Amino acid sequence: MNPIKFLRSYCLSVSLLKKFLLAPALGLVLVLPFYIFAFYYMYSMQNSIQEFNKELIPLQEISYDNIFLLHKIVNETNNAVSAKEVEWLDNSQYDANSIRKNLQKFSNTTYSNEANDALVSFNEYYKKVKEVSVKIIQENYDYKNIDTDTRILVQRYNSINEQFNELKLKIKEHMESNVNSIYEKIKFLLFNGNLIFLLWFILSTMIIFFVHKDLKEKIKNIVIDSREIAKGNVDFKKRLNTIADDELGQVITSINIFIDKLHKSHQKLSTAKAKLKKLYITDRLTGVYNRAKIDETIENELKKAKRNNSIFSIIVIDIDYFKNINDGYGHLVGDSVLKEFSNRLKKNLREVDIIGRWGGEEFIVVCLEANIENTLLVAQNLRAKIEEHSFANVKSVTASFGVSTYSANDSLESIIERADRALYMAKESGRNRVCSI
């Protein structure tokens, strides 16, 4: 076998320490001080790797988790306020406790002060969230200090969100610093080793040359990929190849484990994000779009109509005498009627039409590319389908319909206001009918 190939193969199969011990074994005792330095730096590097694995990676995951849980609490309280259900506020308690437990895990780390400050800020924020939410629900959005309380709540949310992100950024910087430190220590070790080994005979010089070349190439790849990870630019399909069974192999293994964990966390966050997005635009009771999504849809259609000179219409629908259903049968039956009513509407709409719950027993339909005549036909069909349907518990239910079509210079408020007036006309003229303006 070629001596050079043999030496290279041997270097790949032994640890870093043995690689650096090989040249002194072939040289003189005068190189012993170099290996004292080598041992020191290897020990220091191993400490950095252990810190990377045992502390920084879990803390980074906790930081991402806290930010996710904070956003989740906001959505849970918003749902409670939107539904006017005080009991729903308890849904966020579990997530709040999780954030507190997460922050307590920082107590014996270098981030304990930041974590304690974040914990205090979070407790103040969460207390204020529940207090303001309860007031809004109980006072029906109408109490004296609602603007001040809301402003304070937004300020506290921004503050705690900023603290969580700053904590995450510090950990990220620390991780990058650790990786760079390992890189610099190994570079220093190799550089000084080369200076010493160049004084010895040719064989020692050849060994050091191949060790240096091999390690530098692998370290470069590790640092590049690690920096990408620290920046958040991770290719989850990519894994580093573990070429040698040395300390760098351990670093590569650790990075691969970290990528695996990030991949799992990313999948969970993506799933949770999709669920949160759906919750944000969907009415929880009926499953149709909520008012926020319908507002957004109408605004988009207004821009499209003004830009392309196109047309669209809206239908505002109100269940007739719905209060009598709630009073006579109870709110659970009323809720079932709302669900059945919305399903009946969805089944009898065109595929391009968009339906949402406007609030209470009111629904709204956005009819795309539909003029007044076509929209009236859609509304009349819906009215007939509702009237002929036998609802569970209450049997007969009717509804009134107000229709309006886009006209030049319309705004969200004006087109809905016309539909509301048309709905009022339908109610005043006997209900269970369709009117337009």
Structural overview:
The protein has 437 residues and is an alpha+beta fold. The chain has two domains: 3-279, no CATH class; 291-436, Reverse transcriptase/Diguanylate cyclase domain (Alpha-Beta Plaits), CATH 3.30.70. It contains 13 helices and five strands. It has helices spanning 3-13, 16-26, 32-83, 91-104, 112-139, 146-197, 202-231, 247-281, 291-308, 322-329, 331-347, 372-388, 412-428, and strands at residues 312-319, 354-359, 362-368, 399-405, 434-436. Strands 2-3-1-4-5 form a five-stranded mixed beta sheet, with helices on both faces. Helix 13 links the parallel strand 4 (399-405) and strand 5 (434-436).
Give the proportion of residues in helices.
Answer: over 70%
What's the N-to-C terminus distance?
A: 94 Å
**Which structural category fits the helices and strands?**
alpha+beta
- Strand composition percent: 5-15%
What keywords describe this structure?
5-stranded mixed beta sheet, elongated, 5 strands, Alpha-Beta Plaits, 437 residues, alpha+beta, single chain, 2 domains
Brief summary:
The protein has 437 residues and is of the alpha+beta class. The chain has 13 helices and 5 strands.
Topology:
Blueprint: H1 3-13, H2 16-26, H3 32-83, H4 91-104, H5 112-139, H6 146-197, H7 202-231, H8 247-281, H9 291-308, E1 312-319, H10 322-329, H11 331-347, E2 354-359, E3 362-368, H12 372-388, E4 399-405, H13 412-428, E5 434-436
Parallel strand pairs: 4-5
Antiparallel strand pairs: 1-3, 1-4, 2-3
Helix pairs in contact: 1-7, 2-3, 2-7, 3-4, 3-5, 3-6, 3-8, 4-5, 5-6, 6-7, 7-8, 10-11
